[in-house]
Amino acid sequence: MDLLNALILFDTSKPSPALLDILIYTSAILIISNLVFVVLCSLFGIDSNKTLDTEKNKEFEEWSKKNIAPWTVAFTELLNTTIYSPIAEEITFRLLLMKVGCVIGAGMNPWTANIIQAIIFGVMHLSNIVHTTQTTKYTVLQTISAMISGFVSGWVYIKCNSLLPSLLAHMINNGVAGLTELIGYLKYKK
Q1: In terms of Cα–Cα distance, which of 20, 16, 58 is closest to 163?
Q2: What are the Cα distances from residue 116, in Å, to 2, 64, 101, 148?
Q3: Residue 30 is part of which domain span?
Q4: Residues in CB range of 152: below 8 A, 6 or more apart
Q5: Within 10 A of 169 (CB to CB), how many other CB atoms are there?
Q6: pLDDT at 138
């Protein structure tokens, strides 16, 4: 259990949070991240829904040309987007980069480390423009969204003293996006 606590807790000298606290912080990450994203889109005059619809229709067209079955999309969205990616990204950015690399290794203030990991987390999403069919505009939206959620997740990791709220929020957020994508693809196929 000590190894698990060392991985999950931001500060092992402090106690683990209660389940209710984990759920409250998970909800806070989801609400705050999405509200800030919506406000930023409004301030910059970006219609994220229109951009997303255009983007997804292009993607659905490509999938249809390749005869990708909806059950394949469902399986990959569940496995990759909802489970694997959140675990890998939370461990990489919040645990290894922020806690181990910046705070423990470089002796940085946790809040400075949080800003650094959030920026790197967001910028990492820029690679989607090269490796996917995403447009530049959609990739920029995703990058901004990831930067915001990365910052809020890092803040919660420090404040709540647990990686679990960030992990759960990441899984929920990606799971909803994956489910929306699956439903959109099923509608497209009709």
Answers
A1: 16
A2: 28, 40, 11, 12
A3: 2-189
A4: 28, 29, 32, 33, 36
A5: 25
A6: 75
Task: Kindly state the helix (H) or strand (E) to which residue 113 belongs, with its residue range.
Answer: helix 110-124
**Per residue in 41-75, pLDDT tens?**
888 777 777 777 777 888 888 888 999 988 998 89
What are the pLDDT digits (tens) for 3-33?
888 889 999 999 999 999 999 999 999 999 9
Pick left, alpha or beta for residue 161 (phi over 0 → left; psi -120 to 50 → alpha; otherwise beta). left
User: pTM for the whole thing?
Assistant: 0.89
pLDDT given at position 1? 59
> What is d(CA 131, CA 120) in angstroms, rounded to the nearest whole number?
18
- Tokens 């209710």 belong to residue: 20
User: Tokens representing 176?
Assistant: 């909803």
The total domain count for the chain is 1
Contact 93, 121 (CB under 8 A): yes
**Rounded distance between C-alpha atoms, residue 77 and residue 85, angstroms:** 10
What does the angle CA 85 – CA 125 – CA 131 come to, to the nearest 5 degrees? 90
What gap in Å lies between CA 102 and CA 117, rounded to an integer? 9
Neighbours of 164 (CB within 10 A): 22
Residues of the chain above pLDDT 90, percent: 57
Structure token pair of residue 126: 């820029």
